Structure formats: C-alpha cells, structure tokens
Amino acid sequence: MNKKNFRILKILNNNIILAYDFKNKEDTILMGTGIGFGKKENKKVYISEDKIERSFVAYDENVKNEYFRLVKQIDCKIIEISEKIIDMAEMKLGDLNTHIHILLTDHIGFAIERVKSGLEIINPFIDEIKILYPDEFEIASKGIQMIKEILNVDLGYGEIGFIAMHLQSARKNINVKETMKNARILNEIIEIIEDGLKINLNKTDFNYKRLINHLQGALDRIKNNICIENPLLENIKEQFKDSFEIIKKIKIKIEEEYELEVPEQELGYMAIHIERLKTK
C-alpha cells in the first residue's frame, strides 16, 4: 500500500485537510472520508493513497483562503458533489482552472438555497449552451441528477446550462461572465435572424445547430482578429440582398458588444447560412 508524506497545515473538517506534500513540494487540498480525523496541525503524517479520494494543488493563497471560507459555510455533501462533478469533467475535458473548486461549489450552494426559497431563475441561453458545449452539458446533466438523488433537490433543466458554463470557463481559463456574455450575444443574434426572416427556428433541428456553431466560429475569429477569404463576397451581396440586410444588424450588434470591426468576408458567410434557413 503506497503512502505519501505530508505535513498537516490546516484541518478544515474530518474529510478535508490542507497539507504540504513533501514529494511534490506544494500545498495540496486533500479530500477523503475521515482523512482529517485524529490528525493534528503542523504534524508530519503518512497518508495511504487509497485514503485520498480527491486532491488539488492550492497554488494561490487567495484560492486557499476562499476555499477555507467556503468549507465552513457549505454543507459537506455539496462540496463532495461539486468535487465529483469536477472529477468527471477533468477525466473528459482535461485539467481545469483550480478556481473551479470554489466557484462551482459556491454556485451549487447558492442554487440550492435559491430553489429551497422558491426562487426560479430561467436560463434563456440553454439551447445555445447545449449546442456549443456538449461535453460540459453532459457532465452538468449528470451533476444535476446527482444533486437530486443525494440531496433531494431538483435544480431544474436550466441549471444544467449554468453548471456547463462554469466548466467551460474553467476549461478555457476565462471568467464565467465572458462565457455567459458569449451565450447571450448568440441568443440575441438568433433573435435578429428570426425577426428578419419572420420565423421561429426549431432549436432541435440540425440546421440550427450548424448555424450556432458557425456563428460561434465567426465570433472567435472576430475576437482573435483572424480574417478569412471569401471569394464569393460580391456575388453573395448581389444574390442574397435580403439576408445581407439582416447581417448588417448583426454586424452592429457584434461591434457594439466587442468594440471590434466585423470583416465583410465574415458577413458574407453568415448571409449564406441565413439564406439556407429561408429554404427550409
């Protein structure tokens, strides 16, 4: 049975401790049933690897302090569920930003309090999130089911999208507000298209998914100042005049939100996708 040498720095509760890992020379949050029981702070101990259910490195002093605060305030079961969701995510998505241990736990704790108080928050971007971040959405769905089974609290379908955005943000090392903004802008672009074409798009349709993915790719290129060639641009402007009028409104929306200029080449490709919707 392999054992690792640690110095106990802080005992948060019977199941969570902060310890210095002598082998890797770093402070680490260790989690496991009873891992803190009978331990004393500032003492060297050997801990069997099979007793460590989960761990993460606390690189940042602020991360440690925020996590300590959270552990004192939140039900241990919520922390355990949050860590299981993070484990599933890291197995499928790779390493996540360590702040996810604080942000996701805090978010789930608040969401549970909100539901118990009878407050419901609608997620207007749920369809876009499901298309853009399918892996994160799948993991979040399992997390919501876990919460329902263990805590007997149903956070609802919309909450899957919020958890998925937290996972996506930690995956890309960006603020969750940026992920939320991205979903909101896509949703508003869709509203411009629906208004311009006088239709309601079927959000389960393959063409809708293709449209969302193209728009996301266009936004990424615009934000990263990547310009693609469009040799058919003049023909598109001539043949798809109505669609290009809709695109002009989308151009204004994107430029207002990101304070960046949208290349006409991108507008041409967007017009093609809008034209396709007219023939469905």
What attributes does this structure have?
5-stranded antiparallel β-sheet; RNA binding; PTS-regulatory domain, PRD; PRD_sf; CAT_RNA-bd_dom_sf; BglG_antiterminators; Transcription Regulation, Sacy, Chain A; repeat
Folded structure, characterized:
The relative contact order is 0.08. The protein is 60% helix and 11% strand. It is built from eleven helices and five strands. The protein has helices spanning 61-73, 76-93, 100-116, 126-132, 134-151, 157-172, 176-197, 206-223, 233-239, 241-258, 264-278; strands at residues 3-13, 16-21, 26-31, 44-48, 54-57. It is elongated and about 75 Å long. With 280 residues, it is α+β, with helices and mostly antiparallel strands. The longest helix has 22 residues, at 176-197. The protein has a five-stranded antiparallel beta sheet. The protein folds into three domains: 1-58, Transcription Regulation, Sacy, Chain A (Roll), CATH 2.30.24.10; 74-174, PTS-regulatory domain, PRD (Orthogonal Bundle); 177-278, Orthogonal Bundle (PTS-regulatory domain, PRD).
